[in-house]
Amino acid sequence: MATKVHMEALSPTMEEGQVVKWHKAEGDSVSQGEVLADIETDKATMELVARGKGILRRILTVEGQSAPVGEVIAVIGQEGEDIGALVGAGAAPKQAAPEQAGEEPREEEAEEARPPAAAALRTAPPATANGGRVKASPLARRLAAEVGLELSRLQGSGPGGRIVKRDVEEAAERAPAPARVWVPAPGAPTEKDYEEIPLSQMRKTIARRLAESIGPVPHYFLTIDLDMDRARQARARINALLDERGEKISMNDLIIRAVAGALRQHPAVNSAWHGDRIRRWRRVHVGVAVAVEEGLITPVIRDADRKGVAEIASEVRELAGRARAKKLKPEEYTGATFSVSNLGMFGIHEFTAVINPPEAGSLAVGQVEEHPVVMNGQVVVRPRMWATMSCDHRVIDGATGARFLQTLKAMLEEPAAILL
Amino acid sequence: MAEITYREALNQALTEEMERDGAVFLMGEEVAQYQGAYKVSKGLLEKFGHRRVLDTPISELGFAGLGVGAALVGLRPVIEFMTFNFAFLALDQLTNTAAKWRYMSGGQFKVPIVFRGPNGPALQVAAQHSHACETYYFHAPGLKVVAPATPADAKGLLKSAIRDEDPVIVLEGELLYNMKGEVPENGEHVVPIGKADVKREGTDLSIVTHGPALHLALQAAAELEKDGVSVEVVDLRSLRPLDAETILASVKKTNRAIYLEQGWPFGGIGAQVASIIQEEAFDWLDAPVLRVTQADVPMPYAKNLELTAKPSLERTLRACERVLYRNGRAGR
Question: In chain A, positions 103-142, which contact chain B (CB-CB < 8 Å)?
Fold first, then answer.
């Protein structure tokens, strides 16, 4: 039986993908699981693998072209097999398939005509093919809303193409978490003489996600300033120890480690809003905002509370390098339970970050700067740092967030506390 | 715990309650000298005498009415119908009198009476003697209705029914009388009215049922287990009041439900339960609630037709597969 090759959602937020390269030419034989093409998503370049076997009979989306998720971009079949119908459907994906144009089949009939479930997942028309109405079970609708999947992008395996729980779960497995995209500092255009830059996939995603964020996520902000004298000393001493290994840590690595330790002590902050409940994570994964050419991405340091600061430093360096090269895998930039964004290197004194849902908090860190403070009745100059936590008020109340910041402050003002 | 029959369990409940409370008496056709058409009242006449174990003429409307009157003046009658097919004759006393007195007297009177007897199709007794009558009583506010499916529930629910201050219809299963099961020997074994029982725990699908159909549900669950499907079986036990909480907890866990019953589909118990599920657990449903019932026809006499009309294992499994979105098991 011929298999349609669909543009798959290769990143959690991908809406369309561009074929960078076909690894197979028409007429080549293809086995299941073999890499067919490289697809550029809104995040990275990913491999698209074959879901069926046979001969790559027809390529419908050539290199350099884009196709929306779900569209048929090629057909795999047997030699001599008539694939005319499949190619036609692929060329005009918006049109209803002829068997769906008429009345809805009765459930019994649909059941008789139903292909085996596994095949149905790949070959059934998207559930919207039937006049734009998505057929889904109430549970599937609720689950899809909770994990942020659009039903219209799923294919139903139930009677008459109904999207059921297992379809949502399968899709969610392939796209395990919502986007990890950060807000860039918006620069409002004031001059007439400007250049218009077309929107990249990442830019579109940033825009959509941030609109989603600032609307439904009720933010508030808590700012604290910290004395960084001992943290500075600790960093210098650690780097002296690491020197012979040719490694070093940044102040941000130390901050990530302290944040992770504080999250371990304050699980209410290491939580997420899930519609009808709050999910309190048992593990601590810290997202670290990294600037890349087109915007920002947040690679995740998993179990950061259980890692040494040198390990965190080398992981951040390695992930950031691959982020800039667009080589991060989805699992490397999804699943954070809290995020840290540091603009200290740009001389930023203090700022606020937009929460990256479904995380409930984000810490915006400014630079360490010499600042006059009153200590023991004397004005002295101390290295100080301002940090502002954005909190999702649905999850974190003011006092909860404040207690977390107290712990963080205690840890950075006496880094030995991190070892406790 | 002792293993006894459903019949013996009912007999124990009657004996214990008659010993406990002198106001309790048993009345019905053939209950005394013949010791009951199904021998549920075996030994009671000898033990309690003619004043408390009374044979009646074949006159359901008459002795049901006598019972309601006795209850109004302070006795606690247990009225046996030889089968509930014959109780249609007494429907006015049950739904219009027993069910209404407490309400119409503004609570001045209560009607602590039990109407009990076998209910539902047996084997080849034809259209007029094969009724599952639960909906006639379940429909009326003012009546409590229970349908025990095991010896333990039969004993515990009959005891609760006799102690209840309101009229309770106890629907027994003719084909269950010989069924054996473990029953606590403790005299205080009482099953609360209005509380369903999860007879088997599962995660993939809920079969909700009551009465004799429970055993078909358990059979289907065992069959599906071979296929790796984990079925939860919820036995309502009480139809009024109905334990919606237990049903909803099960459906919220499994996301799919079937109602299995021995009666007709139209306006059946399953129709009511399906309505509650879609109202209260809509967002948890992954499939429509299906029902497996007796065919919507008078029960045929011919054996092959009777078997076709009754809910079967095959029909139950087919319904399960539909709500599980599985293709025919043969193909798997």
Answer: 107, 111, 114, 116-117, 137-142
